[in-house]
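The authors assume throughout that readers already know how a fold can be written as discrete tokens. For illustration, here is how one protein appears when written out as sequence plus structure tokens:
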Amino acid sequence: TATLVSVFEERVAVAPEAVALSFEGVSLSYGELNARANRLARLLVARGAGPEGFVGLALPRGVDLIVGLLAVVKSGAAYVPMDPDYPADRLAYMVADASPALVVTVGSVDLSGVADGVVQLRLDDAAVVAELAAAGEGDLGVELSPSSPAYVIYTSGSTGRPKGVVVPHGNVVRLFTRTEGWFGFGSDDVWTLFHSYAFDFSVWEIWGPLLYGGRLVVVPFEVSRSPEEFVRLLVAERVTVLNQTPSAFYQLMQAEREVAGPGELALRYVVFGGEALDLWRLGEWYERHAGDAPVLVNMYGITETTVHVTHLALDPDTAASSEGSLIGTEIPDLRLYVLDTALRPAALGVAGEMYVAGAGLARGYLGRPDLTAGRFVADPYGAPGSRMYRTGDVARWNRDGELEYIGRADQQVKIRGFRIELGEIEAALQSHPDVAQVAVTVREDRPGDKK
């Protein structure tokens, strides 16, 4: 029966004075964060937010972003992340597609042509500030179930149309409960929100600390773009859990060598996700750090399967001896198949397409039953009526029972963690009257620098 709301409110009840959130010198305790989210949630409900509905979040990085996100799920609705740094055309498409009851924003975010005709709740508007001050601080008690949508994250579409992946509360809760044995996260952990909240890796970054009573440090945008400044933040905030795309970590490794002294980092775990990890490139890190301080963990996953699918704890020997990109074994409540074109299990060492089944599967694509049916297909190896997700990723099992990621079976690529369908770019270019034919490819003129 657990939801993100119920687990978070349990943490508030246990330790209301513990620090939950930090950003540029401002901190909120669990009690303060909960009270602010409850006030805003009441305003959202009064404006039409509720279960099975959607609320857009168009907010810059900061305290208001986390308050807004919590307020949306407390209202019963699902949040639709609308990163202000995204192109206006893409944001406008998301608003038209999701039809949110309202969009939460601030005056510094320009939504002209993006959310015309949709109610906009500007948190820094004087009238809204007064209304928030007068709102009640107690929990709302909105009835939710694990199957209620928690968020909708849009991914690239091969036809030129992004598609919204609808993920319920229970999927996120079980992501953490099913990985507890590997990590042992707790109230002493400090996490960072490094990635865009419109990127599904942020789900792991945000809810990890909030569901365990830890502290979330929101990384200012400028700091996230400066590896040197980010290393200084990791040291100053005593961060223990760091989540990175491999391309970001490669830059961080160099900056850490130049900026941080021996023993200055407090990291327990570095968790990789979002794109393929070249294990051999970690040798430089292991030359300066013990294999378990911190533990480097490779986790493969997809938005449609709730962030993470597999887990592999690394060590210096594994990194040095692996030529490919090992991604480990599946989370215990998932089933991962490597199948040939006839949906038969591929032999040991033989490449095939990965399919994922089990508790992590999303509801499907918002308003796209045809596309949902084509990617969330019947599971011939599961119980009657069960589904599996066709990932489009190619892998093979090795003799140790671990998966090696090989690449894609289609035109989709990942650049700095972002999933991009080349067909979406081709469709945009093809729409220009002076363009007759289009071909889009990925260039990698420098190793690791894909464009």
Q: What stands out?
A: Residues 30-46 form the longest helix (17 residues). The mean pLDDT is 94. The two ends are 44 Å apart (CA to CA).
